[in-house]
Design goal:
- With about 120 residues, the protein is α+β, with helices and mostly antiparallel strands.
- The protein has one domain (about 10-115): Thrombin, subunit H (Beta Barrel).
- It has one helix at about 95-115, and strands spanning about 10, 15-20, 25-35, 35-40, 55-60, 70-80, 85-90.
- Strands 2-3-4-7-6-5 form a 6-stranded antiparallel beta barrel.
- It is globular and about 50 Å long.
- The model has no long low-confidence stretch (mean pLDDT about 85).
């Protein structure tokens, strides 16, 4: 089965702080798009069946000009090796925060295009 995406994802080095269910977690980020962020974790950390839960996340990365904060919901949990990729969908995010993500995506696309033009 092929995964359907609403928008392109781009790898992101950094961390995601997640306030969910009265607890605060910190995870490494995996990818970022204008619709959400992916995090890698041991699924037991969040507890049983967190899909649909809503919380606040803060994304920090040297690749972004500043932290991005948004309300998110846990959308999808997929096994990736010994860890799980958890998809957090942005439920509410300001235009300013979204502009930071869009600028990051533009830089990623430009970098990919430049790498493809390099002779091998």
């Amino acid at each position: 089965m092929r995964e359907r995406r609403r928008s392109n994802r781009f790898n992101l080095r950094g961390k995601v702080c997640l306030d969910l269910g009265g607890k605060r977690f910190e995870f490494p980020s995996a990818d970022l798009s204008v619709t959400g962020v992916g995090i890698l974790l041991d699924v037991a950390v969040l507890g049983a069946k967190p899909s649909g839960e809503v919380g606040v996340c803060t994304i920090e990365s040297p690749e972004l000009p500043g932290p991005v904060e948004a309300y998110v919901s846990v959308m999808r949990i997929r096994r990736v090796g010994q860890q799980h990729l958890v998809g957090l969908r942005f439920e509410s995010i300001s235009d300013e925060q979204l502009a930071i993500i869009r600028a990051f995506e533009v830089r990623c696309r430009e970098k990919t295009a430049a790498e493809e033009r390099q002779p091998s």
